[in-house]
Design a protein that fits this description.
about 75% helix; mainly alpha; about 190 residues; rod-shaped; 6 helices; two-stranded parallel sheet; 2 strands; 2 domains
Length: about 190
């Protein structure tokens, strides 16, 4: 070992040389990227807002209308059951004073059974609505992903992140947002 290495100065000089070499390499890399045609490190990322795509595309509006009609249909079924239960309850109250104890117990039991059936039906209809929402959402999301991929390829993007409420993107420069072109492409059809 040389004296330079044993006193620690050589290690510092080597470390400084290494740091300079790494910084120079990074600088050359970024300069090469900046001068290469069509390569822009900042512009390789895009963001898209799926809720805007849902709200601003014809297909998204149709999906929402279809889902709303399905939910309204289920709500109507629930309301019919509620009216029937209310009618049964009113009849039971009106006739309670003229019914025998046995007849009153039978009507109360019948009402309880209908109430349990109603609660089961409500649970079943809610499950149907949730399944429909999930299916429709998954289907539409798959269609959005295809359009996003196409637009991203056209723009030369390497990564597209989701933005919006609950999405992983907390902040992005507005220039990265490709939602507008995605909506335009989606509205062209075929997705």
């Amino acid at each position: 070992m040389t004296k330079e290495n044993t006193n620690g100065m050589g290690n510092r000089r080597g470390s400084v040389r290494w740091q300079l070499l790494v910084m120079l390499s990074i600088g050359v890399f970024w300069a090469g990227c900046a001068s290469a045609p069509g390569v822009n490190p900042k512009g390789q990322i895009g963001v898209v807002d799926p809720s805007r795509v849902l709200n601003e595309t014809e297909a998204g509006k149709k999906v929402k209308e279809s889902l709303n009609a399905f939910m309204k249909n289920r709500q109507t079924l629930i309301e019919l059951e509620e009216k029937e239960l209310k009618r049964m309850e009113d009849d039971l109250i009106k006739q309670a004073s003229v019914l025998s104890a046995t007849a009153k117990r039978e009507r109360e039991e019948q009402f309880r059974r209908r109430m349990m059936e109603y609660q089961q039906k409500v649970t079943e209809l809610n499950r149907e609505v949730q399944e429909k929402q999930r299916d429709v959402s998954d289907n539409f999301r798959g269609r959005v992903e295809k359009v996003v991929a196409k637009v991203a390829q056209q723009l030369g993007l390497l990564v597209v992140l989701e933005k919006g409420k609950g999405a992983p993107t907390l902040y992005n420069d507005g220039s990265l947002d490709i939602t507008g072109p995605v909506i335009e492409e989606f509205n062209k059809g075929g997705y």
